[in-house]
# Entry
Amino acid sequence: MILASGFARFKRAPLVMATGYDFPFAGILEEAGVDVILVGDSLANVVLGLQSTREVGMAEMLLFTGAVARGAKETHILSDMPFGSDSDAATAVANGKRLRAAGAHSVKLEGAKLEVVRALTSEGVPVVGHLGLLPQTAKSFKQVGRDPAERDEVLRSADDLAAAGAIAMVLEHMSADLAAEVTRRVPVPTVGIGAGPGTDGQVLVLHDFLGMHAGVYPPFAHAFADLRAAALAGAKDYCRAVRTRAFPAP
Ligand code: KIV
# Structure
């Protein structure tokens, strides 16, 4: 298992991160060799069918973190700090410790909340930063980094996060050249999602890369499987077998 102190080596070797939310898929991701399982607050959308990641709180993150920890005992587990759980340093430290107790090895938080990052780090809760598109507070879902002021802010935030002690940072939906520039200048691994090939590692949402839903897929997602089709076929077979009395066998 990669410990927080082991993240530095992923400045050279590509880090594979995938979101995971439950016990059986955590086991599959671990067996596949994923380096880090992110219990993302995207579970609001892909698991719970909610509109916004702001609609989940600590109760949900603790429940799903525990399930993933039980399913992947040998893999680094990174849990999102849900909206509001990192509003100030003391609140963040208390909630970060609860996520650690539930099985997370590190936590991720959106934006350059430097005092919070420093407090968590000094209390033994390793932090992964998250820059670019920040779903908890975004007003639009457009790509980040085309506007020069926006670029400067991302670059400054990346420097500040690394200096504050972040062990890595996720770069979401930003122009590939900006993500590559961040990657060149920070000493910690960057993990991109919709940020081009120039980051140190990549992260994708489980339900997107396994083709598990019939909703809208982000333009940068790639389906490596079609689990929805397989599950639908199996469920239809079951319905047919019961209705024709082919199942159960006498
Ligand atoms: O919650 C999540 O799944 C995330 C990824 C999009 C990086 O934060």
